[in-house]
Amino acid sequence: MADPGDAAMGALLDEHGAAAVWRALRDGEAPQPPPGARPDTVARRSARWRDRAGRIDPDALLAATADFGSRLVVPGDPGWPTQLDQLGRRRPYALWVRGAHDLRHACLRSVAVVGARAATAYGMHVAADLAWGLGRRSWAVVSGGAYGIDSAAHRGSLAAAASAVAVLACGLDLAYPRGNEGLFADIAARGALVSEHPPGTPPSKHGFLVRNRIIAALTPGTVVVEAGLRSGALNTARHGQELHRTVMAVPGPVTSALSAGCHRLLRDGAAVCVTDTDDVVEQVGRIGADLRTDEGGTALDPGSLDDTSRRVLAAVPHRTCAGTASVAETAGLGLDSALSSLGLLAAAGFVERGPSGWRRTAGVRGRG
């Protein structure tokens, strides 16, 4: 009935409870405004809510939820992440969840990694590396499922065999963006897809903005990898500040407009500078137990890759480009396996697309 994050509806729920509010609006009545609320605002919105309530079939909605393998989680359920309650009257009314993991458990030890959709190779490289390192240390990565930094972070987390959580701005039965449909399937198999929107809800600009408060609230800290001055990632950072979460930012080239937002956060003292996984874990981990160390490798060390990824990397040339079929043949793999490995290697910064295929990223060691 109500738009996500509507404080007026949140006030009614706090005062009367969800069941009573639903019954009143479904019966064509206006719930009594709570103390401190503006009666005219509640009255105006109640008319819209009543109209919407008359068109909702709860049984059909729950049946559609079950049909595509998701579940509905509401405040008070065992799987409800109680850290969302800190959003107060902007708390989600309910969450649709699809995936192998219990959302509350997955987010107990988690970090949000967010940034620009039109990310640079540098940003993708850093996001994947951070997420991989966090995953190797049993931290789940939460992001928004978008192209660019979000996708690189999700893929880095999956490459480390860790839980990945994607908070979407549309119904879970809609894959948006469409190009990430395969990624969403992988996240559902190894983590959780989350939305406060019911099935069939298309994405909207407002939906993306209100979605960001959930990403910030689910985790103890948010890392902004790349962000322009008007980036939605800065909106997530602001929500993190309001919730007294740790906000971190990765510095980038001073000439890059896609790092200008990160630099502003650092300049204004709104974020802590981080450059690797140890920096992040030291900020959000347990005092005395997660201090920075100078040991261990990163995702950019080819020795950290599994056997399949090493074979694919060895099959990618340095200076010339090779097509996917050629890489698969050289690595002795099927086309699908090779393409999957190439996607992970690209997200982690090992390979890149050239004018006629794949080539090794400059500076990456290995044969070829």
From TrEMBL:
It comes from the Bacteria. Residues 72-284 form the Smf/DprA SLOG domain. NCBIfam families: dprA. Pfam families: DNA_processg_A. This is DNA-processing protein DprA. Transmembrane segments: none annotated. Belongs to the DprA/Smf family. InterPro entries: DprA (IPR003488), DrpA_SLOG (IPR057666). The lineage of its organism: Bacteria, Bacillati, Actinomycetota, Actinomycetes, Streptosporangiales. SUPFAM superfamilies: MCP/YpsA-like. Gene3D superfamilies: 3.40.50.450.
